Amino acid sequence: MEAFTVEVITVGNELLSGRVVNTNASWIAGRVTKLGGAVKRITTVSDDVEECSAAIREALARRPKLIITTGGLGPTFDDRTLESIALALGIPLELNEEALHMVREKYGGDVTPPRLKMAKLPRGGKPLYNPVGTAPGCLIEVGDTIIIALPGVPLEMEAMFEMHVEPIILRLSHVAYTSMLIRVDTIEESSLAPMIEEVMKKCKAVYVKSRPKRNGEAYIEVEVSSRALTMKEAEENVAEACRLLRELIAKAGAKAQEL
């Protein structure tokens, strides 16, 4: 079953130096997955235009349905993501009147040169309203791929994702996704592995992933997920796989419970 494929490119020197934790990447991946999409790759690059444009070209070559960038849309000299997109596509940056109107509204008509910079989009780009911050986002279609540039500030990015990106995924993705977490105690992961393999062989529409945890006490968290044409089918796939997994775990004398 072909999922709606997504790549994420997070931009910022602060992400690579470790000064800022890249929560945007994990948040986007979680939301895309729950909406039925599949994040195939997450790339983090510096504010350097050449590095960023190269990452965009490489992502386009893999032909995902959607590329989401975060960061680099603001008024400062190192906010150059839109310039990078333009370079990657071989098109100019130019003042977008709709984006300029958005910026003017945010600043009460006082548009300084740094603020004007936020209204310059790659030619053919569509500005995306930012309900929280000042910098518009940008949507541009390249063949069968949509590129969406979002701000790096998490509150802005999340609000714009819900406003602009989520409707696109819901409209274009025809796959339902669901998952269930199971806590497994008193068994080693190496002993659990053959059981997971057996479940995946018998229940081919699911994916099962184990993760050792230690929150005061050690246990194994197992995630059972499925993509299907309908939510009902996906839920039935997960339920059957979980039932089989719990039976195998019980036979081994271990304990399993839903989280």
Quick structural overview:
With 259 residues, this protein is of the alpha/beta class. The protein contains 9 helices and 12 strands.
What is the CATH topology classification name of the largest domain? Answer: Molybdenum Cofactor Biosythetic Enzyme, Chain A
Order of helices and strands: EHHEHEHEHHEEEEHEHEEHE
Low confidence ranges: none
- The shape is elongated
Whole-number mean pLDDT: 96
Descriptive overview:
This protein is an alpha/beta fold and about 260 residues long. It has two domains: about 5-170, 3-Layer(aba) Sandwich (Molybdenum Cofactor Biosythetic Enzyme, Chain A), CATH 3.40.980.10; about 175-259, Ribosomal protein S10 (Alpha-Beta Plaits), CATH 3.30.70.600. The protein is built from nine helices and twelve strands. It has helices at about 15, 25-35, 50-60, 80-90, 95-105, 115, 155-170, 190-200, 230-250, and strands at about 5-10, 35-45, 65-70, 95, 120, 125-130, 135-140, 145-150, 175-185, 205-215, 220-230, 255-259. The strands form three sheets. Strands 2-1-3-8-7-6 form a six-stranded mixed β-sheet, with helices on both faces. Helix 3 crosses helix 4 (about 80-90) and helix 8 (about 190-200) crosses helix 9 (about 230-250). The longest helix has 21 residues, at about 230-250. The protein is elongated. It starts with a strand and ends with a strand. The model has no long low-confidence stretch (mean pLDDT about 95).
